[in-house]
Structure formats: C-alpha cells, structure tokens
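Action item from last meeting closed. Structure (290 res):
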C-alpha cells in the first residue's frame, strides 16, 4: 500500500557526525521500504513503523527540506538511506530523492547516499554537480551471488547490477564504494563470499569497502528474520537458535578470521576500508580529500 502523508520535519540532526558514514543530518523521504530485505533493522519496534511493507510518501518533504536548509547554521553532510532506500521502486514515479538532491545542490550541501539500487545512476548529473562540494554513494552488497541476494533482498536489484552501478558511478567521477553489511552469520560469512566481493569491488573500481561482520537482532526484526529463515533453510534457523542469546548485536562466530582476510585482500587490491569525509575549511571554502 502507498499513502501520502504530511511530515513535521525532514532532517534529523545528530549531535556529532557518525564515525562510519560521516553523516550529520539524516533525511528520510519515505517510511517503509519496498526492498523488503529479510534482515532489515528498520523493522525494530523502536522505529514505530506499524507495517514495513506500507510505503508512506512524505508529500511535503521538498518544501520542508528547503525551509530547513535555510535555517541551518552548520554546513555538513546530509545522508539518506538509513531507514529506507531512497531508490526503491516508488522513487521512479514519485522522484522525491531526485528533487531533494536538486535542492541540496542549490544550497551547496554535501551528501552521502546509501542504497541497494542501480536507479541511483539516473541522478548522475545531479550527483556530479553536488560532488563539487562533496558527494559519496555507498551501495550495499551482502553477497556476490545473485540468487542469494534475490532471497535476502527480494525487492532490490541483484548484486551484479549493484557492482555495475558502483563501476559506472566511479567512471563518471562520483565517489562510490561498497557497504559489506550485514555479514549474516551462517549465510554470507564465508571466506569465498568475502573474497569474491573484494575481487568484484576491485573490478568495479570501488573507492572503499566498509564491512560489518554480524547483524542486529531485536524484537520485530528478529521475529521476521527467523520466520523467513524457517522457510528458506530450517537448518540455518536452528544454528541461530542455538547460538543467539538475546543480545542486540549477533556477530559471526568467525568474524576475527573474516576480518583478517578482509584486511589482507583490501591491502592486496589497494582498496580503502574507510569512507573519506567532507572537510570544512576555516576560511569558509570547501574541499574534499581522498
């Protein structure tokens, strides 16, 4: 179901930019997500989304964004993609993300887009213009196997299309990297998967790869994930039930081994393992650093 709603605000300000993605202002133009990743943390009770399959479209989002940017005193990175994907299928018609990027360019703000969709290629020209200040696109890829990605992320383009999007963005001068997260215990936490993703990242000229060797598991998110595992592979569900002890974060049992392999491969292929941040200069000029 799709529904138009009126939002009260569109930008959420963090006290400090987060250390991984360097985002200071979070922007979510929709509620709910059509990609329906079976592990998505946004299903958790704390986010108060009654039905994650319902897509709520914030029809006043662009007006709010323009108004709020006029009032901001601190110029820092706007991030989108934390609670839902800014390039899920509904965006093709509604184009809130495209309109928001145009406003962000107008106000000369830096932006970090997080997505699982190659639809981001539609907005290459706008991202190139924003990139004169700072633009980064992180594309999440959890598995190198298209068949498995279609199970884990049924509403998103398969992994091969995402690798191709990373390649095209970098070839067009837009910094694009890969988020290897989550690495799902007993599913994608294999040496072969890590090795293939890094090799394909090299082929795609990825500016960086940022991993997380585990996942969150809480309340509604956990229930949904376990239900899908029961249908997908009961043996894997049994492993989760055996090792999971109710903690918020559930790490891969071999995370140290995988982390070591990941670091080794990234050094071997010359791939960065952190995201370059937008840098403000004291004289008021803006620049990027790699």
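Sequence:
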């Amino acid at each position: 179901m799709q529904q138009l709603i009126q939002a009260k605000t569109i930008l959420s300000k963090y006290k400090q930019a987060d250390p991984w993605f360097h985002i200071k202002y979070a922007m979510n133009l929709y509620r709910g997500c059509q990609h329906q990743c079976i592990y998505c943390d946004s299903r958790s009770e704390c986010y108060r989304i009654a039905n994650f399959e319902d897509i709520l479209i914030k029809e006043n989002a662009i007006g709010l964004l323009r108004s709020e940017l006029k009032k901001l005193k601190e110029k820092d990175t706007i991030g989108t993609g934390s609670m839902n994907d800014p390039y899920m299928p509904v965006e093709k018609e509604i184009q809130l993300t495209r309109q928001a990027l145009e406003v962000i360019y107008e106000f000369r703000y830096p932006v970090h887009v997080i997505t699982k969709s190659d639809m981001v290629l539609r907005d290459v020209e706008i991202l190139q213009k924003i990139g004169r200040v700072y633009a980064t696109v992180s594309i999440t890829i959890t598995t190198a196997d298209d068949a498995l990605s279609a199970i884990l992320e049924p509403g998103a383009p398969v992994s091969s299309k995402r690798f191709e999007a990373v390649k095209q963005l970098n070839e067009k001068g837009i910094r694009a990297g890969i988020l290897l997260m989550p690495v799902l215990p007993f599913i994608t936490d294999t040496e072969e998967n890590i090795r293939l993703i890094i090799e394909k990242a090299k082929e795609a000229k990825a500016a960086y790869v940022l991993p997380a060797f585990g996942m969150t598991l809480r309340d509604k998110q956990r229930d949904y994930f376990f239900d899908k595992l029961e249908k997908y592979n009961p043996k894997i569900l049994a492993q989760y039930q055996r090792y999971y002890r109710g903690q918020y974060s559930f790490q891969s049992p071999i995370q140290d081994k995988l982390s070591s392999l990941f670091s080794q491969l990234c050094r071997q292929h010359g791939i960065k393992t952190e995201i370059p941040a937008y840098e403000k200069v004291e004289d008021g000029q803006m620049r990027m650093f790699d």
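Note appended to the action item: Residues 283-290 have pLDDT under 50 and may be disordered.
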